[in-house]
């Protein structure tokens, strides 16, 4: 009601006017208002028809209450004529009650309808509400977002898109056309809009204009899918309230200054390195001020560390102007200088960075990381998220107040790449959330040479973000203030609600995909228009000059100043002759490498007392005081574990638990992540017990081993491999004193994360000197799931290994084992004992460097009675076994051995059974190669030396083109050549035998030999 309770005073008036009355009054007022233009300040003479808003009426009313003669007669009539007594009001209500329609099937009373005129007022208001809602929901469809005017109301040619847009506008206002003939009719605004600001009544014309300005200007806001009223109201506060976009002169100058740097940087590079690819930002130059605003605002709101992930477009500009990487160092990358340290490097527009800067706006320090990324667009997203999440964990920032991930996307890649969807979907998962990510889309309306109409089916490139109800701000890149406003609101949104938000910067690409490309080959008309378009920076400068915010000379000075900075940096860059890849590292692990002997390996064995303690805890149900009801089946499993501890023998699950327990005891945070990892795909792990009588009551004994232990997280993930593996890789990059394990449900499912494996895990260190100790557990073995699904694809991982098959290593080096590990790109294992799993896991953090470990984990071996390890294999004298030699009869009398079989993984147990069944223990030696890569040349050499008369076989259950054979064969040849060179007896070659899982096939291997 326009009579504001508490402000107006006379309660009788409030009570006496119904909505209908007021609406009618309002309409009458406005109708009359349209007839007269005189808006005299003299209330005495102004007719009631002149009042155009609620506050005005309020003032009149107050004046009239004190002295009825003080207002125009028409107002007097209005105020007196329509004042009803409470009695009258009651009568009216009673009358209304009478005509309430009969509720169908509920036996409601029969009533008579209200006067038609009353309904007309209600209907009119409902129509206005519908119009408001239409703008809120679909206004963005008619917004003026495209600086090129190809799509939008300012379109020069009536394209199909244009027509669509005009149609949308018509739809937005459609109710108006048939419901009203008077734009000056005054309406009470519903509480679902804030366009009125302090005013509750507005003429329809003003309502439409304000809606148009809020929703169809240079910003199109998509937020009506948000179900929380609080959050939608918050968005309206920032976009609907009149004057919501309001920058001071100082702020405008700052925006221009930042724009000048953004454009100045690209212009400078274009001048100095005209033939070089740099993937410039021109056309979306505003991205830099947007990033700066996000950081300023977030820092003011408490963020201390920002993790940025982005692709090629504008990356150099971000490094220069957001991170303030020294310009001379940046420019030196154009000079083909050589790196003096390890790592092959990467193209300059992929390199990472870590920096700590003082933020002048917030007056606080901010750490900024740009994560190095490969060519594969968008795959860096989950890595950034994981890294940010790990930093939150390290800082104890459990709500994401201090760490902020920002992902910058291209329009085509954001909607095209599945990893975007998978990553966004992590946003609300407890073990993966980053408490909101800010997404910035550099939407230049083209992907390489492809128009959006051929590259996506969705209306917007950002539609993927709707899946998590993230608000999406589409904004015209040529309106700097609108853009920076969106950035400010996005930062505030993320800080307040800790949820994702998207800024879609709709701009263009001034040049080709890279600067050498001719864009007119494929987008001729678009580029005709682009060529005639003034750069945004120039337009904004002119606007500020026109508005008197700055003088033209100031802008000229601003431009010249930045050009001077660039020129000086250029001169300095010419003197730089070398650089270090490590200057570009995104996760520096400060202090970790200092003073370390990188070849020192820590022992991995532990004492019996510790094993017994952890074993007993792991075998025990929750303490009785927890009143936790454990499933009967789990009680049985715990009983088996207890028995194993008593017998001092461990199965796979216990071996793994020993590794986790001892690591957290040593202060190493352990995280296992993947699908169904809490129980384990094969139901062997059962780390998380569920109370059978209470919902969501869980217990994980490994989290309660020691009061001062490091945290242990085991987390069931979403059904994604790519995003989750990427996330865990990022997590592992944040802190070397963490063991992060990603487990596949079946090994072959890892192929949906192939880009993460190829681009990051296999080559991250080589390209970016970035280390990671990520462990992949890939269940593998040919056990009836068909040839492709049974396999974890050992061959693929081995093919990606970087060691030279023809090079026999120098074995007299006492650090040979560590050096081999240091130099490889990753470790590939296929283990056969729980103890070796234990040592392998502990070795991951016992090394003085970090290396990914690809471990092919077993399926049936998880419960195989022979695949168990005595506790002594875990003790202080034990260590990781790269190979496990034959310790049976064959080894006692090696001269008599006729066959030396090398194998890896589960097939070993099949072979042993067949050999034992056929009494060939003395003549057949079976050696397990537990670590396939780096290849244990030294140990294999010794085995071949030991059995001089034996023929050599590699036995695997995988097909010939699968398994380890193609990797092992050339390396075994190298060993044989070395043996011969040293005049040792050695077979001429190694033969391959493939055995399938059938007993007949196994027998044939043993018997035929
Ligand atoms: C996964 C992947 N597929 C293909 C490419 C090749 N490629 C490089 S840039 C590009 C176009 C990207 O368009 P957009 O995301 O809109 O970014 P823009 O270059 O327009 O900024 C393509 C297809 C790639 N780098 N990564
Ligand atoms: Mg693009």
From TrEMBL:
The keyword Oxidoreductase applies. It is an enzyme of class 1 (oxidoreductase). Residues 87-111 are annotated as: Disordered. Coiled coil: none annotated. It is found in: Mitochondrion. GO terms for molecular function: metal ion binding; oxoglutarate dehydrogenase (succinyl-transferring) activity; thiamine pyrophosphate binding. One of its GO terms (biological process) is glycolytic process. Residues 650-864 form the Transketolase-like pyrimidine-binding domain. Its main location: mitochondrion. Keywords: Glycolysis, Magnesium, Metal-binding, Mitochondrion, Oxidoreductase, Thiamine pyrophosphate, Transit peptide. Its cofactor is Mg(2+); thiamine diphosphate. Residues 101-111 have a biased composition (Low complexity). GO terms for cellular component: mitochondrion; oxoglutarate dehydrogenase complex. Its EC number is 1.2.4.2. The 2-oxoglutarate dehydrogenase complex catalyzes the overall conversion of 2-oxoglutarate to succinyl-CoA and CO(2). It contains multiple copies of three enzymatic components: 2-oxoglutarate dehydrogenase (E1), dihydrolipoamide succinyltransferase (E2) and lipoamide dehydrogenase (E3). Belongs to the alpha-ketoglutarate dehydrogenase family. NCBIfam families: 2oxo_dh_E1, PRK09404.1, PRK12270.1. This is 2-oxoglutarate dehydrogenase, mitochondrial. It comes from Drosophila navojoa (Fruit fly).
């Amino acid at each position: 009601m326009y009579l504001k309770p508490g402000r107006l005073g006379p309660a009788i008036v409030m009570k006496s006017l119904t909505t209908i009355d007021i609406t009618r009054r309002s309409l009458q007022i406005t109708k009359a208002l349209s007839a007269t233009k005189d808006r005299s300040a003299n209330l005495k003479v102004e007719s009631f028809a002149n009042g155009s808003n609620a506050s005005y009426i309020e003032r009149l009313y107050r004046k009239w209450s004190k002295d009825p003669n003080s207002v125009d007669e028409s107002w007097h009539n209005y105020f007196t004529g329509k004042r009803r007594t409470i009695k009258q009001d009651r009568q009216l209500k009673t009358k209304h009650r009478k005509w309430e329609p009969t509720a169908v099937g509920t036996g409601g009373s029969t009533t008579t309808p209200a006067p038609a005129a009353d309904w007309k007022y209600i209907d009119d208001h409902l129509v206005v509400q519908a119009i408001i809602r239409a703008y809120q929901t679909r206004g963005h469809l008619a917004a003026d977002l495209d600086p090129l005017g190809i799509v939008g109301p300012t379109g020069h040619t009536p394209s199909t898109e244009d027509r669509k847009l005009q149609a949308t506008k018509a739809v937005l206002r459609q109710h108006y056309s048939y419901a009203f003939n008077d734009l000056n009719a005054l309406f009470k605004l519903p509480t679902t809009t804030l366009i009125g600001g302090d005013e509750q009544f507005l003429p329809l014309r003003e309502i439409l204009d304000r809606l148009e300005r809020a929703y169809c200007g240079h910003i199109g806001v998509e937020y009506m899918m948000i179900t929380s009223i609080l959050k939608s109201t918050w968005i309206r506060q920032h976009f609907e309230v009149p004057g919501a976009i309001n920058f001071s002169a100082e702020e405008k100058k700052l925006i221009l200054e930042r724009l000048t740097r953004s454009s100045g940087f690209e212009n400078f590079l274009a001048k100095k390195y005209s033939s070089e690819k740099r993937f410039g930002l021109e056309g979306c130059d505003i991205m830099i001020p947007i990033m700066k605003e996000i950081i300023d605002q977030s820092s003011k709101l408490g963020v201390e560390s920002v993790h940025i992930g982005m692709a090629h477009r504008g990356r150099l500009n971000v490094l220069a102007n957001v991170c303030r990487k020294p310009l001379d160092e940046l420019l030196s990358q154009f000079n083909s200088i050589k790196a003096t340290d390890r790592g092959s490097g990467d193209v300059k527009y992929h390199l990472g960075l870590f920096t700590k800067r003082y933020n002048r706006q917030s007056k606080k320090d901010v750490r900024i990381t740009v994560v190095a990324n490969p060519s594969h667009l968008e795959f860096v997203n989950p890595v950034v998220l994981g890294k940010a999440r790990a930093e939150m964990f390290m800082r104890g920032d459990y709500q994401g107040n201090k760490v902020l991930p920002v992902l910058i996307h291209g329009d085509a890649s954001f909607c095209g790449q599945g990893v975007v969807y998978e990553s966004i979907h992590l946003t609300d998962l407890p073990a993966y959330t980053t408490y909101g990510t800010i997404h910035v889309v550099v939407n230049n309306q083209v992907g390489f040479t492809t128009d959006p109409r051929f590259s996506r089916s969705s209306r917007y490139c950002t539609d993927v973000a709707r899946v998590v109800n993230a608000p999406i701000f589409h904004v015209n890149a040529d309106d700097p203030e609108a853009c920076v406003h969106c950035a400010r609101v996005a930062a505030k949104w993320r800080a307040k609600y800790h949820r994702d938000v998207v800024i879609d910067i709709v701009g263009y690409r001034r040049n080709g995909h890279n600067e050498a490309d001719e864009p007119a080959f494929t987008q001729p008309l678009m580029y005709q228009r682009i060529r005639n378009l003034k750069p945004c920076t120039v337009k904004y400068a002119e606007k500020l000059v026109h508005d008197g915010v700055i003088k033209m000379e100031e802008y000229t000075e601003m431009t010249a100043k930045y050009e001077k900075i660039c020129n000086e940096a250029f001169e300095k860059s010419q003197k730089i002759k070398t650089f270090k890849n490590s200057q570009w590292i995104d996760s520096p692990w400060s202090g970790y490498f200092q003073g370390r002997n990188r070849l020192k390996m820590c022992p991995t064995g532990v004492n019996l007392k510790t094993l017994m303690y952890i074993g007993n805890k792991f075998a025990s149900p929750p303490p009785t005081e927890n009143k936790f009801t454990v499933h009967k089946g789990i009680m049985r499993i715990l009983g088996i574990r207890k028995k194993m501890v008593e017998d001092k023998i461990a199965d796979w699950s216990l071996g793994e638990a020993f590794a986790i327990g001892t690591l957290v005891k040593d202060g190493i945070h352990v995280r296992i992540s993947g699908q169904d990892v809490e129980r384990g795909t094969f139901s062997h792990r059962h780390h998380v017990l569920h109370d059978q009588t209470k919902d969501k009551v869980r217990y994980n004994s490994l989290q309660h081993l020691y009061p001062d232990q490091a945290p242990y997280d085991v987390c069931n993930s979403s059904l994604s491999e790519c995003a989750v593996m990427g996330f865990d890789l990022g997590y592992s990059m944040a802190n070397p004193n963490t063991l992060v394990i990603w487990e596949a449900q079946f090994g072959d499912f890892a192929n949906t994360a192939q880009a993460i494996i190829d681009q990051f895990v296999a080559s991250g260190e080589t390209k970016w000197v970035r280390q990671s100790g990520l462990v992949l557990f890939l269940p593998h073995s040919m056990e009836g799931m068909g040839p492709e699904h049974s396999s974890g694809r050992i061959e693929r991982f081995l093919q990606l290994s970087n060691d030279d098959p023809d090079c026999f290593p120098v074995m007299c080096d006492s650090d040979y084992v560590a050096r081999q590990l240091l130099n490889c790109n990753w470790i590939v294992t296929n283990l056969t004992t729980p103890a070796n799993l234990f040592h392998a896991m502990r070795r991951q953090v016992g090394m003085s460097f970090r290396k990914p470990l690809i471990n092919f984990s077993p399926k049936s071996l998880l419960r195989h009675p022979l695949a168990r390890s005595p506790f002594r294999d875990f003790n202080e004298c034990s260590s990781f076994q790269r190979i496990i030699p034959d310790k049976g009869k064959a080894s006692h009398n090696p001269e008599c051995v006729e066959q030396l079989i090398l194998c890896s993984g589960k097939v070993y147990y099949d072979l042993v059974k067949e050999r034992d069944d056929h009494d060939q223990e003395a003549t057949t030696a079976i050696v397990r190669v537990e670590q396939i890569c780096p290849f244990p040349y030294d140990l294999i050499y010794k085995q071949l030396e030991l059995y001089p008369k034996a023929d050599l076989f590699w036995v695997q259950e995988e097909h010939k083109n699968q398994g380890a054979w193609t990797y092992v064969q050339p390396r075994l040849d190298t060993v044989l050549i070395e043996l011969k060179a040293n005049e040792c007896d050695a077979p001429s070659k190694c033969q391959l035998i493939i055995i399938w899982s059938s007993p007949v096939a196994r027998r044939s291997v043993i018997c035929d030999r």
